[in-house]
Write a structure and sequence with these properties.
Number of domains: 3
Strand content: under 5%
Largest sheet: none
Structural class: mainly alpha
Shape: flat
Helix content: 55-70%
């Protein structure tokens, strides 16, 4: 039906469960996310609050693998706790009708509050709210590699909230070193974390990669 939807959080693609499934299946996290969406949509359309008690566990897992064209996908969902023998745990809390109604109501209220705030704010106030240019962050963003270089505004907020300006040289040095490391260059950058994950988890504190040892033939 037109207008139907399911609730997906902005951070879902970077959740540990998604990354764990990607590693188990040997595919990109983006691919895992797309296949999960297809599974969630089926449960939303065909089950009552994520309950699949009428389907045997074996049949359900085979069906999910077929649905997303990925052998072992259901097993990986089960391994990270996103699938059980009776269906999807806590699905109704996120995508039941009551959850959808609450989300829609909250969205409408936020839209009204934002509109009122913009209307009442003075031109001076609105100018103050323009995102500032932070040269050290811009340098970080320019050199950060990988196919998942998204979420610039959120990364800037983390940069400012964690006061990473004081660590800028260390961070830039670490990103530069990791960019040429085997770990980040493997499989076309498959294992490069999203920049938001890199900053939130302070990956720059992990240390620099070791230089490869050159062995001379005797």
């Amino acid at each position: 039906m037109a207008g139907d939807w399911i609730k997906v959080e902005h951070v879902t693609i970077d959740k540990p469960e998604v990354l764990a499934m990607a590693e188990l299946l040997g595919i990109e996290p983006d691919a895992v996310f797309g296949k999960l969406f297809r599974v969630w949509r089926w449960f939303d359309q065909q089950s009552l609050n994520g309950d699949a008690r009428g389907v045997t566990n074996v049949t359900l897992m085979k069906f999910i693998d077929t649905l997303v064209a990925s052998q072992g996908f259901a097993a990986s969902m089960k391994k990270v706790g996103w699938l059980t023998e009776t269906g999807m745990p806590n699905f109704d809390r996120h995508n039941g009708e009551s959850a959808k109604n609450r989300a829609l109501t909250n969205k409408r209220m936020k839209r009204f509050r934002d509109a009122d705030s913009v209307t009442s704010a003075s031109p001076e106030k609105r100018r103050e709210e323009i995102t500032p240019i932070v040269p050290s962050f811009e340098k970080f963003w320019d050199i950060y590699p990988g196919p998942r270089r998204v979420g610039k505004a959120k990364c800037l907020k983390v940069w400012q909230a964690q006061e990473l300006e004081a660590l800028a040289n260390r961070i830039l040095q670490h990103v530069t070193a990791m960019s040429s490391s085997a770990q980040w260059r493997e499989s076309g950058g498959k294992f490069i974390p999203a920049p938001l994950t890199y900053l939130n988890q302070r990956r720059f504190e992990d240390g620099l990669p070791e230089a490869p040892v050159t062995r001379l033939a005797i």
